[in-house]
Amino acid sequence: MSQPQPLISVIILNYNGKNYLNNCLASVLKNNYDNYEVILVDNASKDKSIQTAEHRFGDDPHLKIIKNKSNLGFSGGNNAGYAHCRGEYIVFLNNDTTVDTAWLTSLADAMQGDSTIGLAQSKILMMNSDQIQIGGWIFSDYLIRKHPITQNQSSQINLKPCFEVSVASGASMITRRTLIEKYGLFEAKIPFFYDDTLLSVKTWLAGKRVVTITDSQVHHILGATSAWTLEKTTFNLLRAKICLLFDIYYQPYELLKAIFVNAVDTLINTIYALKNKRLAVVYANIQGFTWMLGNLRFLWQNRRTRWSKAKISPQELREKIIKIHLPIALYLLPSKLGTNTFATATANYEHTLHKNHTNK
Fold it and tell me: Could you say which of 95, 149, 249, 331 would form a disulfide bridge with 17 (CB–CB 3.0 to 4.6 Å)?
């Protein structure tokens, strides 16, 4: 006798997604997994996208709509959605996606079949093609560079069915309720860019794996509903990286070294931005490090909280997160040599993920 399907809660966060939300919901509600609920969370949209979704899909028994009174960001909005979930597994899905019919079944099968997996993302494809957009993210030393696994060459797109990544992409990812209940979800104080990375770090610290499931496929527009300025985007990306540095580098001397390397990298980028009159980037970088200095207590307390529940060592965490190792100068120097060397190193890493390789 077959086992009953576990209930899966799919959280879709919406903000002014009138051009994308209906297609996303239509595809999700046609998927071939039976036991699921959709928690649609609206972050105080002003474009009537949620009213349109209510009119078209409001009678579907799978769908529950939550309306926030203000825009809580990605972190706060998804936290609000989680409060209404009943599922054994929780999926986070962007509203500018469409999913394949077997998308959820493939994620569920992976989680059910392998208890070592704590967080799994789908293979994210471009919206209008089968070109891989994000097959997961990998980091270089000291988080200087972050690279999406793409393998766009036609001879390389046959990725392994399941492979580890540094951090998962929040466009489509599934995790276990038990993991969230013990380690928490997103940090509401950092509303953007620290969400999927934070959940990935928590998963690794819990002794579970972060992976990509290639049979679960999602088409994604990438940032379609973002209306952010360059300054705001740059500031929040830097703030998220600073948080991540405090999470990953446990030994104080390693943390100080990581902060120094990133400060040098940011200074170089700031000088080039100033030279090219990109004042928004200059101001955002100053804001980022000013924010760090003003929030050292918050950063340190969060770090202590995460590591108090850790089931792996600091060295093991770094090995799981840092996949590309090169001399620091090659990361920092804005030269063609550094760029080409990094590109070669990442291509070599991607090659190990080809499904014809025997390494697991």
Answer: 95
